[in-house]
Queue: 4 jobs
Job 1
Amino acid sequence: MVAYIIRRVIVGLLMLVAMSFIVFALFMKNPVDPAQFSCGKNCPPERIEETRHALGYDQPLVVQWGNFLKGVAVGREYPADEKMREANPELVSECAAPCLGFSQQLQMTVNEEIAEAAPISISIAMVAVVIWVIFGVLFGVLAAVFKGTLIDRGVVGGTLFLYAFPTFFVGALLINFVAIKWGIFPAPGYVPIAEGGVGQWLLQLMLPGFTLAVVYMAGYVRMTRAFVLESMSEDYIRTAKSKGVKGGKVLFKHALRAALTPLVTMFGLDFAAVLGGAIITESVFNYYGLGKLAVTANNNYDLPTIVGLVLLLGGLVIVANIIVDILYAIIDPRVRVA
Amino acid sequence: MSESATVFEGEELSGGSTPPSAPGEAKAIAGKSPMKLAMMRLRKDKPTMVSLTVVILVVVAAVLAPLLVKMGVLDPFSYNQNLLDANTIPEGGWSGASGAHPLGVEPGTGRDAMSRFWYGITFSLMIALTAAMLSVIIGAVVGIIAGFSGGWVDAILSRFTDLTLSFPSTLMLLALSSLGLKLVQQVTGLPNGPLAQGIYCTVVLAIFGWTSTARVVRGQVLSIKQREFVEAAVVLGASKPRIYFKEILPNLWAPLLVLVTLMMPAYISAEAALSYLQVSVKPPTPTLGNVLADSLKYAQVDPFYFFMPAILIATIVISFNLLGDGLRDALDPKGDR
C-alpha cells in the first residue's frame, strides 16, 4: 500500500515536471517578445536588450526553466538578473516558495495575483459543486428508479437539453433576463463574505454557480443513473431484496453506495478542474476569479501569469488524480496489486 | 422494461411476423450479421431515428450553403442599413423578419440573419468534423499501439495520455492562440484570415481531444489481441502496421463511429466557446459560435436574434448526442437500455 502511494506520487511529480517544461517551451516560443512588450512601444533596441537581460529572457530555455523550478521549490527573487537586483534594490521582489513567477506588467508575483483571484473562483466552484452534485445525483437516482417511464425521460432529456446550450449563452440569458429584466436576482457582482455577510455572498453566487453547474449536471445525472441501474442488477441486491429489506433501504444503503465509488472519482477530477477557475462563466459574469485573470493575462500577453496559471490548474488536476487513485486503492484492494 | 423486452424479441424472431411454432422454417433461424441486427435495433429506436433525420438535414444544409451563397440565394455578407432604425436595431418585431429576410436581419449591420445562421452551420460542422476525425485518428493510433504493445510502450503512452488530460484545455486553447495562429500561417503560408483561424481552432481541439478515443481503443485492443486471428497474424509473421491497421482496426469501427458522433456536438459547443473567447474564426465569416457570441449584446433589445442561434446550436448538439447514444446502444450486442 505504502509502495503504491509512493509510486503514484512519484509519477505525479514527474508529470508535473514534464508539464512545466512543455508549458515553458510552448509559451517562451510565443511570437510576442515579452521583453519588447514590457519595455513599451517606443522602446529603442538597446533598451529592449537590456530589459531582456534584466528579466532573464536572454538565458537558454533550460536555464529559465531550471530557475522557475528552483523558484517553485525554494522561492526566488525578481528581476531574474542578479546584477540588476544588486544595482536597484528597490526593484527587487521577493517570491516565496512555491513561487509561480512574476508579472512584469502588474509588478506583482503570480502568487499574489492568484491569492487575490482564488477566493472568487473557489466560491463559484463551491456553489456550483453543491448544485450539480445534489441535483445530479438526485435526478440520476430518480431516473434510475423510474427507468423507462416519463420521469426518466423527462429528467435525462431535460438535463441533456440544458447541457446543449453553450455556457456563455446560459450565463448571458440569466444576466439579461433573470437578473436585469425580471429582477429575480440582483445584478451580478462578487461580494466577499467580509463585506456583505454569508447571505449576500451566496445570493451573488447563485447565477454563476448555476451556470457552471449546468455544464456538469447532465453528466452526473447520466452517470448516477447508469451506476445505480448497474448495481441494482447485482446479485447482492437480489439477496437483499429476497431477504426482505425494504425498497428504499436497498436503494440507498446498497445500490447507491456501490454507485458512489465511480462518482467520487469523477467528482474529484471535476472539482479540481472548476477550482482552477471557470474561464467562460467568470468572463460572462465579469467576476475576477482565476479564469478571468487568465483571459486578462492572455489579452495583455502577460506570459508569466499564464504559465503560472496553467501550471497551477494542471497541478490541481494531477494532485486530484493522485488523491483519487489512492482513495481507490484504499476502497478497492484489487487496485493495489497492479 | 417492456421496451427492451420487445427489442429483444424482435432480434430473436427476425422481425417475426410468424410465431416460432415452425422450427423447420429456415427463415426464422437465418443468421443475421451484427450490422443487420444493429440496423434493426436502430429502426425501432424512435428518438434516435428522429435525431438521425435532423442530423442528415443539418449535414445537407451545411453542404448546400456554399452553393446557395454562390448562387446568391443566401447572402450573409451584404449590409442592409436601410432596415435598421437609428440605434441600428432592426425595425419591426422578430428582428425585422420579412419575405426577403425570413429570420430578420442582424442588428448593427443589417446582414440577413438566416443566411448567416445557415452559412455558419457549414463552418461549424467543418471545424467539428475535421477535429473529430483528427482526434479519432490520433487516438486510434495511440490506443492501438499502446494496447497491442503493452509493457513500457503502453506505460509511456498511457502516462502521455494522462498528461494531456491534465492540461487545463480551455486555458491552453486560449493561451496558445497567438503562437498557434502564427505557426499555422508559417506552415501553410496562409494569411491571417478565416482559414488560418479555422485550422488553428480545428488542430488545437484535436490536440486536446484525442485522449478519450485512445483510452477506449486501448481497452478494446487489449481484448482483441487475445483473439485467434490476431495470434494467427503474429505467428504468420505479419508486420506491425499490418496487424495494427488491417487486423485490429476493422474491429473497432463501431466504437469509433460512436466516438465521432459524440465528439461532433462537443466540438460544436467548443467552437462556440472559443468564438466567445475570440480565438476561433472571426466575423464576417459566420460560424454558429461567432454569430451567437455576437448576439449576446442584443439580448435585451433584439431577443429573437439572441435566441435563434442558441436554439439552432442546441438542436444540432442534442441531435448528435441522441444519435451517438442510440448508435452506441444499437451497436452494443449486450445493449440493454
Job 2
Amino acid sequence: MITVYWVYPDGSEHKASVEEGVNLMEAAMANDIESIYGECGGSMACATCHVEVDESCGIKAGEPFAMENEMLDMVESGRTPTSRLSCQLVASPELDGIRLKVAW
Amino acid sequence: MSDVKPSCPFSGAEFGERFRPFEQEGMFEFLQEARDSQPVFYNKELDCYVLTRREDIQAVFRDPDRFSAQNAQAPITGYSPEVVKIFQEGGFTREPTQTNADRPKHTRIRNIAGQFLNQKNFNQYESQIRELTQREVAALEGKNRVDLVEELTYELPAKVLFRLVGVPEEASAQVKAWGENRFNMIWGKPTEAEMREGAESVLEYWNFCKGIVAQRQEEGLGEDYVSHLLRSRNGDDEVLTMNEVHSLIHGVLLAGHETTSNGSANMLWAMLSDRDQWEKVVADPSLIPNAVEEGLRYMTPFITWRRMALTDVEIGGVAIPAGATILMSLVSANHDEKQFGCPMQFDVERRNARQHLAFGNGIHFCMGAPLARLEMKILLEELTRRFPNMKLAADEKVEWPLNMGFRGPVKLWVDLQG
C-alpha cells in the first residue's frame, strides 16, 4: 500500500491508501475524488482524469507517454509542466506520498 | 463481471422472449426484473445476448481484445439483396472509421479526429452556441403551447454542429431527415419498401457529404472539421484516405446531433415531469451541469449498443459463443441499483449522476460528449431563465419512436407560460 494525496483547488486534500499496481484514476474513482471521472476507462481517450503532480512533495511521476502527451494538450483546464493523466500512473513504492492537484 | 448464476439452463432464452427492444412501454420494469433475476439473457428476435448490469457492460466496453465493435452499426433487420444492390450501384462506399472500427485502424483515426473533436476546441465555440440557442429560444417568445422538439431540440444541435464541421445552416432540415432515415434503417423496423426508398436517401446523403469535402478542396481550407481532416491527410493515404474522410463526415453529421436532440428532449421531459426538479434548477442554475448528467442517466438517448464476441466468453454465468452479438442495454446500466440508489427517481442533485454510461466507456468513448454536455447546459440555462413557469401540456401524451437504439420523445408539448 502507498499513500496518495489529492489536493483540491481550495487547498483541502483527500488522503488514501492505494494498493500497489492500481492506477491512480481507478484509485481516485474508488475514493470519490471530485472532478476525476475516468470516462474512457484508462484508454487515454477522454482526459477526464487529468491531474497536476505537485513536485514540491519531492516525488516526480516522470514524463507522459506519447499518446498521453497528445491528450494532455487538449485538457480543458490547461496543461501544466507536471500534468499527467492519472490513469497512466500506477501505484508503486516510488510514488508513495505523491500529491496530485485536481483541476476543475 | 458479475457472478450471478442463471436460473435457466438455456441462457435465459425463455426470459428473453419477453424482451421488447423497440418499445418504450414497460421497458424500465422489464429491465429491473432482468437485473434482479436474469441479468444476461438471449433474445431470439434480434439473435443477441443482452447485458443489463452496469458492471458487465463496463467490462465489455473496456475489453476491445475480446469484444469487437465491428457490428455496432449493422442494420438490425438486415438488408435485402435489392437494397444491397442499390447501395452498390450508387457507389455507397462508406467504411468503418470510428464507432464500428477496431484497432489499429480505430486508433489511427481517433487520434486525428481527436485533435479537433476535444473539449478545449469545443469550448471555443461556446459563445456561438449560446448565440444560436438564444436566437432559437427568443423565437418562442409570445407563444404558449409549443412542441419543443419541433421548435427547438430537433434542429438546434444540427445547426451547432454545422458551425464546427463547416456546413451551411440551411441544410439542417435536410440533414435531419437523412439522419432519421439512416437511423431507422439501422436500428428501426422499416418495411422493405421503406428500406429501398431509404437506401436512395442514404445515397443522396453520401453524395452530399462528398460534395462538402470537394467544395472545401476547391475553395480552400478553413478552421472547420473538414479542413482539419484534409490538412491532417495532406494527400497521404497512409494517414487518412479520401474515402475515410468522406466516411468520417458522413458519421459526424449524424452522430453529432441526433443524440443531442434526443438527449435534450429527454432531459426536458424528465425534468418537467417532476415539477420539483424543474423548480430546483430554476432557483439554482448552478445545478444545471449535474441536471444534464442526470438527464443522460435517467433517459439515456441511445438505449443500447452492440459488440461482437471474438472468442467464447462467459458473462454472468451465461456462455456466449464467439461471433455472437452482444447487446448492451445502456439505459439498464444507468438504472442499475448497485450504482444508483433509487434509480427511477430523477434527481438533479444525484451525487454520482455522471457515472452513467450514456457516452459509452473505454477506447470508443464518445468524442462529442463534451460538446453535447455544453449544448445541453446552455439550452437548459436559456430555457429556465426565459420560461421559468414552463409546464408539460397535461392533455398531450408523449410518443416514443419504434427504435431499439435511439430513444427520445417524438413530440414534447409544453405550455411555455405555465
Job 3
Amino acid sequence: MFPIPIQKRPLINRISYKILVPVSLFVWLIPLIGIMLTSIRGLGDITAGNYWGIPSEFLLFSNIKDVFQNTPMLSYIINSFKITIPTVIGAVAISCMTGFALASYKFKANLFIFFTFIAGNFVPFQILMIPVRDLTFQMGLYDTVTGLVLFHVAFQTGFCTLFMRNFIKALPNELFEAARIDGTSEFNIFLKIVVPLTRPAIAALSVLIFTFIWNDFFWATVLIQGQHAMPITAGLKSLNGQWVTVYHLLSAGSIIAAVPPVIMFFLMQKHFIAGLTLGASKG
Amino acid sequence: MGWFSTTPFLNVPNSTQITYRKSSWWKLNQQRLTPWIFLFPGLLLFLVYVIWPIFNSLYISLLQWDGLSPAIYVGLSNYIELLDDEYFYISLMNNLKWLILFMLAVPIGLGLAIFLNQTIFGIRLIKSLFFFPFVISQVVIGIIFSWFYNPRGVIGPFLDKLGLSNYAILADENFATYGIIFAGIYPQIAYCMILYLTGLNNLNTDQIEAGRMDGAKGFSLFKNIILPQLKPATFLAIVVTVIGSLRSFDMVAIMTQGGPYGSTNVLAYYMFETALSEYGYRMGYGSAIAAVLFTIMMFYILFFIYRMYQSEKKGL
C-alpha cells in the first residue's frame, strides 16, 4: 500500500486528513458549485451581485422550465440522444467484429491494420474536417443526424477496436480451439463464445462512447447547421451567444446538458473507469 | 491445426458432390477468410471517413479553393503564405503554451491520486466527485469558466477584494490564453488522477514492503520503488495529455473564439476559422494549417505506436 494507510498514522494526522479531504474536495468543485448555486437563483440575485450568498429565492425548477419553454433545449436533448445511442450501438457492434478478427486470427496484415486503427484514432480532427464535410454533403447527409452518426461510428471504431482487440486477446485461446475441434463454425465461435465473454468490455465501451459522443462539440459544429438536428453541446453554445447576461438560465441549461453523462457515470462507474484505464496496465 | 484433418473426405455420396465441394472450399478457407469478413464493415468505414480524408486534406492543402468554384492547383504557396502569417505564429505559440502547461496535469493528477489513495469512510464517493469534471462536456466547462472569470460574475467579489475590480482575464490579450488553459487543464487533471489511482491500486505490495524493510522512506521510496511501477500509468497519462492539449478547439470556441485580436487562437481553431467561418472559406489554406497540426501530432502517434509495437513483440 502506498502511501502508508492513514489508519497507521498518529491520531493528529488522521484527524487532519479527515478535515483536509472534504476541504480540498470543496475547493476542487468550486466552479461546479458556483454554477449550481447560480442555476437556482433568480434574476434579482444576479443583478444584485449575490453570487456566493444564500439564494434569496429558490428558482431551480422555474429556471429549468424557462429554459425548456423559451429555447429549443428539449429538441437539442432529443437530438443528442438520437445521435449518441445509434453511435454507441454501431461502434460497439462493429468493433466487436474487428476486435475479434484482429485478436484471434494470424494473418500478414494483422498488426498493420491494428496500428492503422490506433493511429487514425489520434489524428487531429482538423485534418479530416474538409473532406468529411464534403463527403457528407455529397451523400446528401449534411445537416442530418444520420450524417453525423455515420462519421462518429467510423471514427470511434478506431478506439473501440483497440479496446476490444486487447480484451479478446486476453481471453484464453484454448476456448476457441476447443470449439473449433468440436466443429463450431467461426461465426458461431464469435456469436456464442466471444460476444458473451466480452460483455464487460462492451459495457465499458458503451459508457465511454456515450460520454464522448454526448460531449462532442466539434463535429456537431462542422456537420450540423440547423436546430432540427443540433445536439445539446452546439445548442448551448448558440444560447451562450444570446444569453451573455442571463447566467441563471445558462447555468440551468448547462446543468441539464451535464445530467445524462453524469448519471451514466455514476450508474456505470466501475465500467467507466475500467474503460478509461484498460490501457494503463498494457501500455 | 487439428480441425483441418477432421474434414470428412470419405463417405460422400456422388449426388451431393457439388454442394459438398462448395462447403469444403468454405471449410478449407474459413480460417483465412473469416477475419476479412469481420473486418469489412469497420475497415471500410474507417478508410472512407478517416484514412482517405487525411490524404485528401494533404492534397487540398495544395489548392486554392473556396469549396464551391473550381479549385486551382497552387503547389506549396499556401505553406509559403503560412510562413508570413502572424496569426499562424500566434496560434503555434499558443499550442506550445497549451502543451507545456497541460503537462502539469500529470504531476498534479499523481499528487491527487496519492492524496486520495486511502480507505476512509466515503472515499469512493469522494474519488468520483474529484473525477466529475472529466465527465462533463468541455462546452459546459467552458461556459462555467467564462462566467467564473466574468468580473461581474462569480469571481467578481474576490477581484474587488484584491483590488482588481472589473478585471476580465478573457479580455486581456496577454493573459486570456492562460485563462483558457487553466479551464482546460481542470478536467485533464481529473483524467490523470484516475489513471494513477488505478496504477496505485495495482502496485506490487511485496516490493514496497521489501523497500520499507531496507529503510526506504518518503521520497526515496516513492522515487525508487513506486514511480517505476507507475510507468504504464505515466505513459498513458502523458499520451492522453499531449493529445488533449492539441485538441483545444472546444474551449477556445466557447470562451473567446480566438479573441481578443486573435491572441488566444490555437491551430485547431485557426484552421476552422480560416476554412469554415464568416472570415471566409479558404479550404486550401485551412488544410495547410491542418497539415502542420497533423505533422506535430504524427510524432506522438508514431511514438505511441512504436511503444505498442514493442510490447506486442514481447507478447507474441
Job 4
Amino acid sequence: MAELKQVSFPPEILARIAPDISLQRHLSIGLRPNLRNFTEFKPIDIASNNELTENNNNVFGSSVIKSGSTTVINTITLGVVEVNSSTKSATTEQLGNAGYTTVYPVIEIARGRSGAPTDEEMILSQTLHETLLHSRLIPKASLSINNYGAAVYDATLSNYSIYYPDLNPQEFELINFNHSKSYTFVLLSHIKIFSRQKSTSALFDLCHLSTVHALSRLQLPRVYISDTTSGTKVSVKSRSSNTRGLVGLSRSNINIDTNKELFYPLVLNNSEDAMVDSSGPFDHSGVSSNFGVVTVADADKEGNDEEGKRSILLADLEGEAEESAILSRLSIISNKSNTIKKISLINGDGNSEISLDILKQALEIAKLRAQQM
Amino acid sequence: MTFQVRTSLLENVDGSAELQIGNTKVITSVTGPIEPKARQDLPNQASLEIVIRPAVDLASTREKLLEDKLRSLLQSIIVRYKYPRQLIQIVVQFLVSDTSSEGEIDYTSNELNAAINCCYFALIDAGVALSASFASLSISLNDGKATYNPSLVDLNKSDSHHVICFNIVKGKADKILLLESQGDIEEEELFTMISNAVSECEVIHQQQRKFIKEKVDNDYVWKQ
C-alpha cells in the first residue's frame, strides 16, 4: 500500500493557494499577515505641495496621498453647466437635502493594462459619489456662478479685456450685456490609484480622504463670456430681421478666466474654521475607516471563549489573504464632532458575525481616528 | 408595513416574484442552479450572477453598486456549498421607482430594500436553499423620529436614511446582515433605531410567512 505523504508549503505559497488557512494561522499566533496590530491603521502621508494644481491650468484642486506603497493621485477639474432658472432662487435651507451636490469621480486603478472600467472601479466611484452627496458637504450655492464677466475687444490695444460686474462696476455698466442664463460648476474628480495593495474598502478610505483634501484646497476660477472665439467679428445681415448683427452673438462662449489672482476658494458646508489651516480641513466631512471581522479558533490557547473561538476586529484590511478571506466588513465615516456620516456593514461570513458590541467598538475606533486625523 | 407580492409569474425561469413596497415596484427572477460559464465556475460552491436593471434608462454605475450590495448579502444567505460548480442567476428589474426630478437628489435606499425583500420570495419560489430567512427595512430619521419605508419627500427632508436587513431564525431577528446608513447619525440614535427595527422586521417576517404558507398550500399538487 502506497504511503500518502503529507504535503507542506512554504508560508508565501500557502498564502496564495489557501488564503483563509494562512490568515487563520497568522491570527492564532496573534499576528496579521501585514504585521500590523489588529486595530492599527496603516499610516497615511498627504503631500503638502500643490504642484499638480499650479502646473496645470485645467486642474483646480488636487491631492496626492500615499499609504505604504499605494499612491492615490486625485485631480479635480471643472465643468460648467446651465441651470434651470426655476430652481435657482431657492436657498439651501428651503431645498433640504437637495441643496447639496457632489463630485463626479472617475477612479482608475493602474494594473498595467487598459480597457473598460472594472466593477471595482465603478463601485468605488459610485460609493464616493453617493457618500459625498449624502454627507451634505458641498452646498449647491457654493458652485453656482455669480457675477460672470464679459470679454470686450479693445480696438486701441487690440486685445480683449474682461470686466466683471462686481470688480469693475463702472466699465461693466457701459457694456451692452444681456445674458440672463445662469450657470453652475460641476466638479469632476479623476482619481488614479497606483500599486494597489489594500482591499476595496481600504481604497475607499483613501479615495474619500483624497477627495475631501482636494476639495478643501479647491480654488474656483472666474468665468466670463466672450462673443466669438476668434478675434474678428464679421458684420452680416441677419435672416430674421433687417438689422445688421454680429456673427456668433447668439452662441456666446463660456470661458474660464485663468487669472489666478481672481480665484476664490470653494465654500464647504460648516467649514468656516476648517478652511483656516491645513490641520483641520476634515471637520464636517469626516474620516473614513474600514474594518473586517474574522473568527479565529485558538487551537493551543484554551478558555478564551466557550468553544475556544473568538471574533477579532481587524482595521484597515490589506493584502490578498485579508481581502479574500474576510467577508464580514464594516466601513464607517465619522467626523470630529462625533457624528457618524456613513455606516456600511455587511455580514458576509456566517461564522464571523459583526455583533452590536463589535459595531460599538469599531465606532469608538473610527471616532478616535477622526479626532486625531 | 405593507407590501403586495405575487410569485411564479414568469414562465421560463425557475423562480420569480413581483413586489411592491411604497412607490417602488420590482420584479425578480431566479434561474438556477444551472451550468456556469467557465470563468464563473467555482470548484466548491455556487457562483452568483446578479443583474439589476433600473425602471428607466440603462443600467449605470448606480446599479453596479446596488448589485454589489445585493451580492454580498445573498452570498452569505444562500447555501452555496450545496451547489458546487453551478450558477445561480438573479435578475432584478425595477418597474416603478422614485425618480429624482429637477431639484431633488437621488436615493437608492428604497430600491435596495425592495430588491432584498423581493429576492427572498423569488429564491423561495425557485427552491434555492437558504441558511435562514431574511427581511429588510428602509428607514429615514428626522430629529430622531423614524419613518419606515419613507417616500422621496421624506428622504429629502431626513437627517439620515438607513437600510437594515436582519437574518431571521425561528421567527426572531437573529443578527444584522446588512446595514447601510448615510447622513448625520448620532450613535445613540443609531442603536435605538436598530433595536426598533428588530421588532419591525419580525412583523415583516410574519407577513412573509403568511404569504409563503398560502403559496405552498396553493402550489401543492396532491390536495386532499
